[in-house]
C-alpha cells in the first residue's frame, strides 16, 4: 500500500513525467501526439525495408569491391602481411590462397567503413526510394 502511495505521489508531483508521457511509454499515444522515434523508425523500415536491404547490400559490395580492388592493384601480399604480424607462430599459413587472404583483409577494411556507410545509406534511403517509386 505504501508503494502505491509513493508511486501516486511521484506521479502527482511530476517526478515520473506527465500522465501523457506515461501513456506514450506504454504504447498508447494521445490523439494528435507525434509518434515516438521508435515508431518513426519502424514505419520508415516498413515503407522502405526491401529497398534499404538492396541499397545497403549494394553499398557494402561497392565498399568491399573497392577495397579488394585497391589491395590487388597495390600488390599487397596478405599472407606476408600476416607473417609480419606474427600470425605464423599461431596458425600455419603455408596452404592459404593469397586471393582469399586479400578478400578477408578487404572485408575488414569494408567493415571499418561502416560508420560512414550506414549513416549515408540511412539518410539517403527514403528520398531515393520515393524517387524510384515515382519513376517506376
Describe the structure.
The chain has 136 residues and is mainly alpha-helical. It has 2 domains: 1-34, no CATH class; 35-135, no CATH class. The chain has helices at residues 2-12, 19-26, 37-74, 78-84, 98-112, 114-135. The chain is elongated. Mean pLDDT is 82; it is low at 1-11 and 21-26.
Biggest β-sheet strands, sense, barrel? none
| Overall average residue pLDDT | 82
Quick one: how many beta strands?
Answer: 0
Tally of structural domains: 2
Low-confidence stretches: 1-11, 21-26
SS element count, helices: 6
Please trace the helix and strand order, writing H or E for each element.
Answer: HHHHHH
Q: How much of the polypeptide forms β-strand, as a percent range?
A: under 5%
The best one-word shape is: elongated
Helix/strand structural class: mainly alpha
What percent of the residues sit in helical stretches (DSSP H or I)?
over 70%
The rounded Rg comes to: 26 Å
Amino- and carboxy-terminal Cα gap? 62 Å
List the helices and strands and how they pair.
Elements: H1 2-12, H2 19-26, H3 37-74, H4 78-84, H5 98-112, H6 114-135
Helix pairs in contact: 3-5, 3-6
In short:
By secondary structure, the chain is mainly alpha-helical.
Amino acid at each position: 500500500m505504501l508503494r502505491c502511495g509513493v508511486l501516486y505521489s511521484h506521479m502527482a508531483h511530476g517526478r515520473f513525467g506527465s500522465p501523457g508521457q506515461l501513456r506514450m511509454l506504454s504504447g498508447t499515444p494521445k490523439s494528435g501526439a507525434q509518434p515516438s522515434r521508435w515508431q518513426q523508425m519502424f514505419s520508415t523500415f516498413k515503407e522502405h525495408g526491401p529497398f534499404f536491404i538492396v541499397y545497403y547490400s549494394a553499398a557494402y559490395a561497392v565498399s568491399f569491391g573497392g577495397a579488394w580492388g585497391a589491395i590487388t592493384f597495390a600488390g599487397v601480399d596478405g599472407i606476408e602481411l600476416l607473417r609480419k604480424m606474427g600470425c605464423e607462430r599461431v596458425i600455419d599459413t603455408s596452404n592459404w590462397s593469397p586471393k582469399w587472404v586479400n578478400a578477408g583483409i578487404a572485408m575488414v577494411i569494408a567493415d571499418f567503413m561502416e560508420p560512414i556507410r550506414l549513416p549515408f545509406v540511412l539518410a539517403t534511403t527514403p528520398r531515393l526510394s520515393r524517387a524510384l517509386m515515382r519513376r517506376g
